[in-house]
Amino acid sequence: MSKTFRMSFFLAATALAGVSGAAVAQEATGDEIIITALKRDTNLQDTPISISAVTGDTIANSGVQSISDLNASVPSLSFVDGGPSQRRVVIRGIQAAGEPTVGTYYDETPVTGVIGAGNDAGGSTPELRLFDVERVEVLRGPQGTLYGSGSMGGTLRVIYKKPTNEFDAAIDTSLSATKHGGANFEASGMVNVPIVQDKLAMRATGFYRKADGYIDNTTLRIKDINEQKYYGGRLLLRATPTDDLTIDAAYYMNRSRTDTPSWTLEAGKNNSDALTRQPMRDDVDLFSLTAAYDFGGVVLTAAGSYMERDISTVSDVSRFIRSTRTAAGCGARLNGSAAIPCAGTQLTDYYALVDSQSTSALFPQQNMEAWTAELRLSSDGTGPLNWTIGGFFSDRDIHVENPQVNADPVTGAIIYPLQIATTRYINDSLRQVAAFGEVSYDVTDRLNLTAGVRYFRYDKDINGETTKGSILVGAVVRPLSFVSSNEDGTAFKFNASYKITDNVLFYAEASQGFRPGGANQVIGLAQELTPYTSDSLWNYEAGLKTTMLDRKLTLNMDVFQIDWSDMQISTRTPNGAFAYIGNAGSARIRGFELEGSLRPIDGLSISGNLAYLDAKLTEDQPNAGTAVAPAAGFDGDRIPFVPKFTAGLSAQYVWGLAEGLNGFFRMDANHVGGSWSDFRPAYVFTRYIDDYEVANLRVGVEEADNAWGVYVFVNNLFDDTAITRSTSNAIAQNRTLVNNVAPRTVGLNFRANF
Fold first, then answer.
1. What is the DSSP secondary structure assignment for residue 147, as one 8-state letter?
2. What start and end residues bound the annotated signal peptide (predicted)?
3. Euclidean distance between CA atoms 454 and 671, whole angstroms
4. What is the pLDDT of residues 352-373, one digit of tens each?
5. What is the largest CA-CA distance in the chain?
6. 0.85 exceeded by the pTM?
7. Helix, strand or coil, per DSSP, at residue 11
């Protein structure tokens, strides 16, 4: 089936789904979905904000494993996909390097990535396994008042199922095979045990996944280099000493092992020509404690967490090092100008230096420790006046060791003991305190007004040193130095909603989002480039939420405009070796979102979503078009990695086969439009990421009460290459490095509840 035909079919089906109302991200059961996005219980369709709730049943039925699989289910949700542990969450096109633009929460705990060498904590969001989940809530638009920094584009909340006072157990196992690769196996299990009846219960989950690779390294002659291994689990304890007090304690563990899933476009589909192996190790340990006490109409909630993350990556720099092996390159580094080339002994010694590092890689080791605490007091939502007030504290410390080391030219493996060409050390500390409040009042039984404010203060302290320099990459030995920055401010939210009828809700909102500024960790960077300021935005939107046909049809839509000021972007030093953050002008994003669901007959549910984003700069960035900033954008340039059009469509049908047995059919498909990898399309390192469609299919037999089920599934049904990320830079020497959706995978899934 041709791509053109698939595209036409998909868009026609999505349009039909939109007309019929099939466009939301949850299973259409007709039951009310209760969410806690406003820090209290509310009905999804009565909550006057742009929010999608993906239920645990939908997650299980569609085969979703982590937050990166949710983009097909939620409008305007996307990911800049650098592979496992290297993904950036994006909502409504607010895409930029630096601190996260989307707040990601696991239960009550906000999580963030590590800074890396380029100060880019938002590019490595932790992805814990989505098994035994109650629901995922995706709040679109700034959520600065209740959720703070990192929520300037929106907030993604994963709510896991909590321990109950009844014994329960479940398993979910799959065997599959991937085209161009081999066999895959995964298994997840859960057991819930009451310890003290009605007082104390435990819920434990565990998972293991091994996926064979499908990328071959043609240079090192190693097949299936991107084999993946994951394992981990959760241990949850719930204590209810009294009817009014609930205490939840949790431990989350996630381990990830793989090689880079990138391949080189010029080397052919699923082929890498990297000169070194590029393994990745990611260890996450998260502890949390939450207590809630109901005083009768007022609930006091205290939540605290500690997270430790150790991550190690390898990035091949061999070709960049080899590119310096010229007489002009020697002149530029030793004589101060390429116009004064080296000769004789000077050139011979320089070539020997390059040859000694000709197969090498960056080998950053990062350790993060993060503490968070929140105390809030909320009304219980029963009266016309509802409110939340609270305080928040976080303290994040990251240590980075970033050496360039030699690798074996035959195997590509890092050589031990390490042969270090250059190295630098960075210690980065970010502390935040905030006070927030939000009040909502029902002026009439149909009109509601809401206002919120958050005061915040950030303190960032950095120290670092370069203990061994390298003339090849421009790294100069630097003694221990210190840089500090701090900032405070406020963010506001105003919302008005009106129930036109009992089943039609109109709302309008103006809300502010923000991210802290800071200082770059590139040791020796020009003083004027070291600090960067916060960026902020205002979001203006209006929307409708409708429920019709005796709750068989829901249809929600909204339009919005976002004005983004002082946006932070990632740029590089002139030699292309070091990345750092800078402020670069303003942007505007205008968009439209549609989602809905339809249950035309018993057993059949159809859902879908679509979004249109026009995300562009509204002014020239500093030094745009010059040799200093050749990739800086001009007024009208699109924001990188933001497709104009995305859409998702799913259909599920369950019907009776025999006494106590049901048949099961489900189809999920999504379309992602094209985008650019940088602001300037004509820039030598800018790449275009083509649009793609991916469809998944699942057919099976299940026990009528869902005690067990057996399913055959096909992911990436049409085996679309589906490139999700495409980049190039000086390190890659103009080669194009891409990531893509895994090729067609066919498998068998068994799950059971006991």
1. H
2. 1-25
3. 37
4. 999 999 999 999 999 999 999 9
5. 89
6. yes
7. helix
